[in-house]
């Protein structure tokens, strides 16, 4: 049996979300604040016996903030199980509790937590006149959290994430219409308290590793103590009797020491002298408190580990953070193994962000091997190294859309060939596209190296600060990866940057052409034809998909970099490519000619001469804040980013004012009037168009003006 679906309605930062799981290992990834911890807590409210009592203590802070007024709404957490065991005991549990019957056996089951107003409140809501918003508002003001109840239900048939279904079951707060049926059958039957799924399954939760040393010092959370307590109950009294005798003899021996007996006598005499015989204690002893009970005795055991130095074992507090975390994780996994042998009919292991301080090689090895028979494993992670070991079909991605957290399944709706193509791309380098807020896909090293440098130099913000991940596909097979970004899958902006490879030389055959000219024209024609086909294919591929956009250079990145107005940057590094004086002079002349046939051929020759990636590194050193960013790249950046906030715009303009002082020699006093206008923009006294016009008037030649004009 395994969990196949989790639905969250109005729970914390989830308005309505569906998380899908498969057998085996499942991965949940997402940015900070996207709801990973809340998702795990929701599952624990239904399955973790240690947390189950908390299910009855939900409060108004557990309602999704996007609701505004929470009163009257419901929180619903729904788990669906698939491949339910055919064992007679299990079948009996689900037939009476939460199962959905197919034929004579249960093969699928739902188990729901419903936090809703009590029947008296639901009755008052049902009696409201449709459309009477004033009466609804008045009633809601009378409701507080004590008017709510928690019920567990099964055999439900409703898709709780469907807004229409929710309005039918709970009510339409805008139209002020509420169902007269106080307990709609669609939510399922209430599960009696005697039927407890949590007691019949193996469930282990390993929380995020924050402070491992304190966990070991706490008797309640110490994983070693948990393991020892479990084993202490299995020790035969007869087998433990010799140890009990040793402890009792040790206690007696300590108590009988002359110094101990002397101090005991001195204490008693001093009390008698101070308070008198009447008020003194009737007896007083100094005894060893070492317990002879296995459970208590095991509490004195500590774990000592030799991490690096041979022959020396230290306490947990002496280990490195990574070493301590690895030990903690290992003990929790062992705790799970001990629990698993108790023949529960389903086993679930939930691990929250296990990668903290653990070396990347250990991360990959550990989670490549983290696979137990008859166990469903669900873990959340920020690690690209762990996600590399994940099957894309078993990944859920959590993303934030304002105050709402959404869940995406990257393989939804794809065939096996498409899934296989994506899986091959998700190595440790490229898997970061699953973690990104937005994505740029590029085809080569030059774009990967130089685009981030240009953006940082011109805008003063890195791509990371803009929330954009740049992924080098190292080919033109964009469709294999870009297929991820779709309404059915990952709903994040993805911009594709590639070359049209339009020829910049005359392709007409000439009888005077030598063999080299003929070959060059043939190659250029082939590249141009491929570029045209690629443009048609990518445009058709992205057409109608609001998450995808395509952006083309006319020729290639290097050629368009110069044609945009950056010849001086390339000229400045010619001496790092060539050593011959005559060649250097000729190269500079070609680059400064303004003739695309000359500078295009020269820049590509230079790139091939030292390698495109190395050439980009050389050019990167020459890029300054006055660089011209090609228009197709800017379009891709802002298409991927989406709407630009006023705060980001203000940060960019403020950076350009610093450029005026530091790079252009403008006096600070000359910048002050524009800073004053920028301050007014930050406080909302003027809008973006106003501050943009002010910047254009103050510094008309600054690179940022052309960019601001497009926003």
UniProtKB/TrEMBL annotation:
A Pfam family this chain is assigned to: AAA_15
Domain called OLD protein-like TOPRIM: residue spans: 434-501
InterPro entries (alphabetical): AAA_GajA/Old/RecF-like (IPR041685), Bact_Antivir_Def_Nuclease (IPR051396), P-loop_NTPase (IPR027417), TOPRIM_OLD (IPR034139)
Domain Endonuclease GajA/Old nuclease/RecF-like AAA: 1-386
PANTHER family the record matches: ATP/GTP PHOSPHATASE (PTHR43581), ATP_GTP PHOSPHATASE (PTHR43581:SF4)
Name of the protein in question: Uncharacterized protein
Provenance organism: marine sediment metagenome
